[in-house]
Amino acid sequence: MSRALLVALITALPAALSAQPYIGVTGPHRGTVEVGGGGVWTGGYDAGSAVAALTRPAGTTPLTLFAVDGRVLGAPGAGVQIGIFLGRRVSAEATFQYGRPILRARVTSDFESAPETTADGTMTSYLVGGSLLYHFGGGRFVPFVSGGGGYLRQLHEANAELLTGTEMHAGGGLKYWLGTGRRRFGLRAGAEASVRSKSVAFEQKRRIIPSVTAGLSYQFSRRPSSRFPS
């Protein structure tokens, strides 16, 4: 009787084990995909100044027609990202951001003594880039740090003036997951500093521009192998 019971257990054990779900880490693994999107707030920056001058005969000082200084105002926008996990902690993602900031110019020192005036011009800004993320932990609350680079394209004056440049960014944030399964939704918030080689301004120089993001994420993956979990 005992020998027959032992044989039955040995026979049934492989089938029972194969039927069990993977009981390893419930967080993401290699191959997990995450997509998301939400709002972006991009900070403003000093756009510098310029002087419009009329050249006079040699040896005389140019005539100043007017001077202008400006500032690009902080503005809301939208962003999306799609990423894939290279392991339990590290993921790579592509990002896209869109915004419509305003360039506010103040005209002074008019040659004809006209009063100071202020003019606003709306820009269209596109930022396409990529980032590497490192996640701390795999529970519901998951802090992360990120860094990467991208390509900036800005259009000004009814899309008549085009400016392109490169950018590098670094920052971090927090993800809060609403579930623990292989398919789950979550909230994501982050902050970054973007170093841009060019930007719409009266003076061209490298600028550091902050941004804040908040939105939703959706994470999904296939069931990892029970023999070789990632």
Task: Tell me what you see in this structure.
The chain has 230 residues and is mainly beta. It has a domain at 27-43 and 79-101 and 124-220: Porin (Beta Barrel), CATH 2.40.160.20. It is built from 1 helix and 12 strands. It has one helix spanning 2-19, and strands at residues 33-42, 45-54, 63-72, 75-85, 90-99, 102-108, 117-122, 124-135, 141-156, 161-177, 183-196, 207-220. The protein has an 8-stranded antiparallel beta barrel with strand order 1-4-5-8-9-10-11-12. The longest helix has 18 residues, at 2-19.
Described by the principal axes of the CA atoms, the overall outline is: elongated
Instruction: Give the proportion of residues in helices.
Output: under 10%
Helical segment count: 1
Q: Please list the strands of the largest sheet in the order they lie side by side.
A: 1-4-5-8-9-10-11-12
Average pLDDT across residues?
83
- Beta strand count: 12
CATH topology of one domain, anyone? Porin
Instruction: Write the CATH architecture name of one domain.
Output: Beta Barrel
Tell me the β content.
over 45%
Low-confidence stretches: 5-10, 12-25
Class based on secondary structure composition and strand pairing: mainly beta
The major β-sheet equals: 8 strands, antiparallel, barrel
Give the termini distance in whole angstroms. Answer: 43 Å
List the secondary-structure elements in sequence, H or E: HEEEEEEEEEEEE
Over the alpha carbons, how many angstroms does the gyration radius reach? 28 Å
- CATH class descriptor name of one domain: Mainly Beta
